[in-house]
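Give me the 3D structure for Core shell protein Gag P30 domain-containing protein.
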Amino acid sequence: MFFTLRNHPEWQKECGINIAPSDPLIFGLENERKQAENRLERCCSGCDIGETCLKLRKRTEDKMVEGRMEPRTRIKVNFSLRDLDNWQQIAKNYQNDPIGVAKKFEILVKSRDPDWKDIDVILDALTETEKQLVIKTACTQVNAQIIAGAMAGRVEDHIPLTAPDWDYNDAGDYASLKRYQNWIKYGLENAIPKAVNWSVLFEIRQGPKEKKHSF
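Predicted structure for Core shell protein Gag P30 domain-containing protein (215 residues):
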């Protein structure tokens, strides 16, 4: 027990053991303990001069390289013949149900993310008159937005009539493509005037007490 207490002067103080502070053995033990606590493990040249440990810095850099995110690359999914055949069947009903066809186009955009050339093929499934109406309707709305100051640029910047040089993996070009997809969807929804339900109108009859001018 004595040897244990001898190695721990702080325990001696807590236990009230009066060991002369001038004892060189105690001073030596305390100095060795303090030096051991303050001593840094010097495993490389960086540690020797007080800088960051080179081994630790290399491990940190390796972890940063491993955890670094690579830029995301978009993979374009091409249309199959089956996709085009299905769309052609849908497009045949465009004049009767423009909203329904526009919703199918929206689903096609979400599943295939078509570029300008793909959309041109999609619009070719319509009649030439229907295709021009869709594009004209979209252009008219874009022009109105530009005049109102809500959009900048020219109409052809937003709805190009020829294939633009848009990079599928460029953030700015891809944003232009997404806006173009939305404008084509708008054109599909609004190009065909909504049909008047004449059957409902014919059901409205003049009451026996109603005057002609008020009816």
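The chain has a mean pLDDT of 78. Let me know if you want a second pass.
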